[in-house]
Design brief:
Number of domains: 1
Helix content: over 70%
Largest sheet: none
Number of strands: 0
Radius of gyration: 21 Å
Distance between the termini: 40 Å
Shape: elongated
Order of helices and strands: HHHHH
Number of helices: 5
Strand content: under 5%
Structural class: mainly alpha
């Protein structure tokens, strides 16, 4: 049977698949590297809220972090062809959402804590980004090792 002259060869298909997987992996690594850097600033904002630093100082730092975490989540590949990268992509999607919501919620609690003793207790309990931050560090280490 003759192969269609316009159809790519199996070698070309394999090379294209490998290139696509490499680009997906590279995108995950870039996004994760930025998120790890941003999470340090996010933790500083959350701890500043706990310390009752001025919202006028913290909000201009926290608001852009919230937007950037959401933007990074939106920049993730829709899906990864490599099963291991797909698992990491799914973790990143949830973690980036968590970080954005955690900073936004901390800022909102700070703005309204004077209205409620319960909110003030919540602000006192803020201790950073918790387990998702550690998980992000692990994802970065895994992506960097591959």
């Amino acid at each position: 049977m003759l192969q269609d002259a316009c159809a790519p060869s199996p070698a070309e298909v394999a090379a294209a698949d490998a290139a696509r997987r490499a680009e997906q992996h590279s995108a995950l690594r870039r996004i994760t590297a930025e998120a790890v850097i941003l999470q340090d600033e996010a933790e500083a904002v959350i701890l500043g809220i706990r310390a009752r630093e001025s919202l006028g100082y913290l909000a201009p730092r926290g608001g852009p972090l919230v937007r950037r975490f959401f933007a990074l989540r939106d920049a993730l590949p829709r899906r990864c062809d490599d099963a291991g990268d797909e698992q990491l992509r799914a973790i990143l999607e949830v973690t980036l959402h968590h970080h954005a919501v955690a900073v936004a919620t901390a800022l909102e609690f700070s703005a309204y804590e004077w209205r409620s003793e319960r909110l003030a207790r919540q602000v006192d309990a803020f201790d950073g980004l918790g387990a998702p931050a550690r998980q992000l560090d692990q994802v970065y280490a895994t992506l960097s090792a591959r």
